Amino acid sequence: MKNRKLIYIAIASIVLLVLFTLYFHSTKDFKSNQLSHSKELVQNIHLNQKKIIKSILELMANKNNNFDELNHSVELTSNNCISLQKDQFLTANTKSQVDSICNKIDRQSQLAESFKSLSSSYFISIRYLQHKSELINYNNLMGATLSSSDKNTNFLLNSAFSYTIFLDEVAFLILSDFVKSSNIDNKKESLENSLLKSHIRNILHSRVKLIELQNEIESLTPSLEIKGLEKLIKVKTEEYLENQKSMKIAFMLIGLISLITTVFATLKASRLAELLIFANADLDQKVVDRTIELEESKKLILKQQEEIFASERLNAFGEMAAGIAHEINTPLCSINLANSFVKKFLSTQDSKYKDRAVKMSDQIDSTVERISVIISSLRKVARNGVGDEKEIVTLKEVVDDSINICRERLKNSSIDLRIDIDDNALLKIQSVNISQVLINLINNSYHAVQELDDSWIKIQSENIGNKIRIMIIDCGTGISKENLEKIFTPFFTTKAVGVGTGLGLSISRRILKDHNTDLNYQTYNGNTCFYFDLDLCDLLEIQLEKPA
Asked: What is the pTM of this model?
């Protein structure tokens, strides 16, 4: 027991220390990575800002006509800004700083787009002038005599290059005068002169605008804000490292306190575990004893249910005994009368009685068969079918077995029994128990309508998909609302004292539960109707039931 306690203490201590270590390092790594990521984003923004200015200066100096470097730097700056705005280390102060930087960078990106667009037009004009100048110089080298027009053009080209490189004011005036001038003599300028004037006009306009854009882009470079943000991140990092030292001490104290608490808790838990073992042993014995008692109670309840079921069955047969006796007594009288006539014929051998004797003999046969059917149905329904296996039977067989027992009783009370069922419907059921349900429902209807004029009871079926609905309908006008809530309650009855037990509907419902269905009530065309659904057999089930 002592060794077990020491093992518990050791395991608890190790688990606790591992959890504290993992938590501490995961927090540390996350925060460190976050601060490093923020620092990297700010450094990238700073670096790409320098590249943007460099690219613009190169474009202005006509050293580079490729915009890829500028595009790349602008895109990286914008992306880093977006990432920085989503950074989790930001507080209210740092967020306002980052937003200020990103607003400037957004504006700078817009200006860079304008600069690129204007530069493209500007470079086209510069290349045109270069081409023009190279052509004149080439002709001069080849010994061609330059015309006054070529000399003037060459002078204009040199002035244009002087203006683009040095912003020479004299060159600017010369070029401006040329742009404003017109050919008065010809009233119509040559195409070449018109193109030259168009490109020089574009250079004069674009050069000034590009300088303005360059200055504005440079002024928007958030160098000071970036340096301030870098400093803030550095301070945050140092604060975090200081906090980590304090956290280490706190974690060590918490770990020590937790270890001591765990030791005491483990010792106490060991004592409680011993007590719990004894308590569980006692409880297990009580559970076993209680289980035995419950099993005994369950067996007693099942036995009582079977006795009640048998009692209700006998009660139903008792109520129908008079009808059954009459059903059998009537054909017996017929047999007796026919037998007397046959005896008379045999004693006298009078030929005039012969045909009637034969007829009476046939009547005796049919009457005996009728009694046999009644007795057969009675034997089927009267026996206890609780443990019966389900068998495949037709709906007609079940209904015939039920009404054979109560037909005469209904006839004596002038109750019209109507049958409208699917004779060929096949069911896999405990036929004895389903017959008991039908007898109970017919018996209830009998008591409800026997005093009414033109009374009738109807057994009807309806096919509903792969089920068949069996309805017992009578000419009654339904059940009152206050009684409807209690009709399935055991021992509840609306019959006179001594007439019924109040178990018929509850027992019928229990039988139907065993067939995965339920007994239901409704009004059908204004009349009282109880119904239940049963599964129809398919061809596969019928084939499997057939013996090999």
From this structure: 0.39
